[in-house]
Design a protein that fits this description.
With 356 residues, the protein is α/β, with parallel strands linked by helices. The protein folds into 2 domains: 170 residues, 3-Layer(aba) Sandwich (Rossmann fold); 180 residues, Dehydroquinate synthase-like - alpha domain (Dehydroquinate synthase-like, alpha domain, Up-down Bundle), CATH 1.20.1090.10. β7 and β8 form a beta hairpin. The protein is globular. Bound molecules: nicotinamide-adenine-dinucleotide, the ligand O=C(O)C(=O)C[C@@H](O)[C@H](O)[C@H](O)COP(=O)(O)O and zinc ion. The site of nicotinamide-adenine-dinucleotide has 30 residues, from α1, α3, α4, α5 and α10. Belongs to the sugar phosphate cyclases superfamily. Dehydroquinate synthase family. Pathway: Metabolic intermediate biosynthesis; chorismate biosynthesis; chorismate from D-erythrose 4-phosphate and phosphoenolpyruvate: step 2/7.
Length: 356
């Protein structure tokens, strides 16, 4: 097992990464917990619910099951209300603990429910997609979507533990694997050129989920994300680099309708667009723009964005959380493994959009 530590003003907690970790979940339930609310969706619960319920039995605590509908289109206020209804109907109190079993959708909405319920109860992330293991379960960004923009309603709220069982990745579809790999290669592009080149060399093994390669990719991604969020929990500066590819990516998700493309697919394509913008604005070399495009293609994400008028892109991206005073701000790569966040004028953005 590997352990990565996250230390933030909002809480310190371990990320445990291991094969078979689901069976050890009881270790993360505090002794004073009154009840466990196990939040999942029908797809994940059918696969891993029994294992998790068995693992939690040794805590001798009451477990309340809350199943929410599967899909990005349900990461919204109606589903959040459904969770609150279940917590209240079952008389959960402030010492209850939420266990979020699922991908990023379950993790983000459960974390936000934990942040809001009685003004905050403890929660444990049990991520079951590659994307949620390498990214969404770590760092405490919790949220729901608004029809106008991604993750617009949310809170920074840290879990008390992240429990990663890499065995569960075996039941993922190829699209979900590709989506998770998009966030993996993102870390290499923004902070660690050596890791990026390792991803290039191991692209085939990553898409095939070769166990030792996946274990390393998950661990390294968690280390890199833990480092960034430990420096800047609430995105007052450095943390924004984790948003590379997301200004374009979130526009794709909201513009196509949530769930049409997976988040990681949109981010993969968005990173190609952000690399092209980096070439225009801060001199990323053309061969490195090509490397980004080739790697996104190699992991199986789309490389061609929706064919929209430039004004639609600008309108959608105007609701990005990094925008300030009406000015769009992007994460850009001056070189591979290094990133900056800067404002870019609309004319330059439109010039790059025209390349696609
Ligand atoms: N909080 C953050 O820092 C952060 C970071 C990145 C992404 N996100 C959010 O995460 C969400 C995307 O997460 P995702 O890609 O995990 O999507 P998801 O949660 O929708 O999961 C994708 C699909 O995989 C299924 N699934 C989950 N685990 C499975 C398993 N082990 N085997 C088979 N099927 C399984 C799910 O039921 C779903 O159908 C987006 O809402 C995105 O905004 C948040
Ligand atoms: O943790 C972060 O910070 C990130 O930006 C990670 C992203 O991969 C993730 O998609 C995040 O939810 C996006 O944040 P948002 O603030 O742009 O909604
Ligand atoms: Zn993301």
């Amino acid at each position: 097992m590997s352990v990565v530590q996250v230390n933030t003003p909002g809480g310190n907690y371990p990320i445990h990464v291991a094969s078979g970790r689901l069976t050890q979940l009881a270790q993360s339930i505090p002794a004073d917990a009154t009840t466990i609310a196990l939040i999942s969706n029908p797809t994940v619960f059918a696969l891993y619910g029994e294992t998790v319920l068995n693992a939690l039995q040794s805590t001798e605590k009451k477990v309340v099951q809350v199943l929410i509908p599967d899909g990005e289109q349900y990461k919204n206020s109606q589903t959040l209300d459904q969770i609150f209804d279940a917590l209240l109907q079952n008389r959960l109190d402030r010492k209850a603990v939420i266990v979020a079993l699922g991908g990023g959708v379950v993790g983000d909405i459960s974390g936000f429910a934990a942040a809001c319920f009685m003004r905050g109860i403890r929660f444990v992330q049990v991520p079951t997609t590659l994307l949620s293991q390498v990214d969404s379960s770590v760092g405490g960004k919790t949220a729901i979507n608004h029809p106008l923009g991604k993750n617009m309603i949310g809170a920074f709220y840290q879990p008390i533990a992240v429990e990663i069982d890499i065995d569960v990745l075996g039941t993922l579809g190829q699209r979900e694997i590709a989506a998770g790999l998009a966030e993996v290669i993102k870390y290499g592009m923004i902070t660690d050129a050596d890791f990026l080149h390792w991803c290039v060399e191991n692209a085939a093994a990553l898409t095939a989920l070769q166990p030792d390669v996946v274990q390393y990719a998950v661990q390294r991604s968690c280390e890199l994300k833990a480092y960034v969020v430990s420096q800047d929990e609430r995105e007052s500066g450095l943390r924004a680099i984790l948003n590379f590819g997301h200004t374009f990516g979130h526009a794709i998700e909201a513009g196509l309708g949530y769930g049409e493309w997976l988040h990681g697919e949109a981010v993969g394509c968005g990173m190609i667009m952000a690399a092209a913008l980096s070439a225009e604005v801060c001199g990323l070399a053309p061969e490195h723009v090509q490397l980004v495009k080739d790697l996104v293609a190699a992991i199986g994400c789309p490389t061609q964005p929706p064919q929209w008028e430039a004004d639609k892109w600008i309108d959608l991206m105007g609701l990005d959380k990094k925008a300030e005073g009406g000015q769009l701000r992007f994460v850009l790569l001056p070189e591979l493994g290094k990133s900056v966040v800067q404002a870019v004028d609309v004319t330059t953005v439109k010039k790059v959009l025209a390349q696609f």
